[in-house]
């Protein structure tokens, strides 16, 4: 491993936050072990991205006996040279090591956007009025753990805003455009833009590289994403992509580009279809809040959930925008005095889609798997009702899982084996089947049996929402689809259920 110079003193505790380059060494070169060795390397890289969430890419290598392969991991996947023999190609080996040791911050993939001064972190960007603005970063609120992902990372600021860094799909409408449209349409309950800056793209980072056919691992499972998985795939969203992996090719002599990067060369036909371009941007929004999973009492949970649903209604009905990624990380608890009276708001429109717009062309099925609606898991077009279903799953998750960690457990411990585990493990179709069974009365009763006793008073609300979203048909089966007619009826029914439950607390 290569570490930053300040951490190489004797007695220093080495941490992933200080790693520059990571490698995996094996005594022998066995092609049959490639997948196992590669996955071990990706674990190291994943930990680096976890501790350096705004890093743009990571250099890595495999050294198996005398065979070496150089890798680069970014938010679209991983790509490499072929294996070469370090004895037969000693000059190449030396150039790689010298390159790793002498790279500047940009060539190393380190964050160069966040500045540091007197121990404080800050960024410089223009606000919505075009004025240059210095924004001091406070604590990190959230960072996404997967390698191949949006890599979303959020910080609070000194002036009660949130700074969000993310690698959004280049095939989706940028979040800043959705937020601008929402403001224009006078949508309520959705965060507003303070400032925005486009930093770079995967296409720019991989500029003038050429890629051969990607290596793929075959997956089991019968969900729409499991046909094949390339080596850059992350399981966080359960959707594989055909991003580039092995046998990358040439890079031009770009200024300050390292020798080791120049080694990554092999002639083949270039194609952007081998990987999905992502746009790295910084977005400052207001107001700041706490994610819903940090609720401290039942009333706060229910009021925040209710108001977030009101925000979704305004976004969809007034703004003509469908959110499509309802999860605990995208619902925040807010101070109504600075949030237009809302005690809960919606954030993160990266996955949002304007009504009546065509397919985006992006590769992921949208959503966070534990909270995806049953029909979305079955690859049926996403509707507003599916987002309302996701809100319900968030409520159940907060009561049955998160509450045990928020001081509601009393003298009891959380169940070791939970029904909720079936919402995380398996193919899309398996999870959809599990959820469908859980949405019958008997299934929901099993879920509510995992609530701490202090959450028993939420049970009637859960049963009422279940009846609204999943009514039985004449044959005793639950209805999973989106009802025709005025969408406000479904919103108002659920909001009324929350209001009644809150009034009884």
Automatic annotation (TrEMBL):
The reaction(s) this protein catalyses: L-seryl-[protein] + ATP = O-phospho-L-seryl-[protein] + ADP + H(+); L-threonyl-[protein] + ATP = O-phospho-L-threonyl-[protein] + ADP + H(+)
Record domain Protein kinase: where: 142-505
Disordered: annotated span: 215-265
GO MF terms, alphabetically ordered: ATP binding; protein serine/threonine kinase activity
Protein EC: 2.7.11.1
InterPro entries: Kinase-like_dom_sf (IPR011009), Pkinase_fungal (IPR040976), Prot_kinase_dom (IPR000719), Tyr_kinase_AS (IPR008266)
Subunit structure: Component of the EKC/KEOPS complex composed of at least BUD32, CGI121, GON7, KAE1 and PCC1; the whole complex dimerizes.
Function field: Component of the EKC/KEOPS complex that is required for the formation of a threonylcarbamoyl group on adenosine at position 37 (t(6)A37) in tRNAs that read codons beginning with adenine. The complex is probably involved in the transfer of the threonylcarbamoyl moiety of threonylcarbamoyl-AMP (TC-AMP) to the N6 group of A37. BUD32 has ATPase activity in the context of the EKC/KEOPS complex and likely plays a supporting role to the catalytic subunit KAE1. The EKC/KEOPS complex also promotes both telomere uncapping and telomere elongation.
Entry protein name: EKC/KEOPS complex subunit BUD32
Lineage of producing organism: Eukaryota, Fungi, Dikarya, Ascomycota, Pezizomycotina
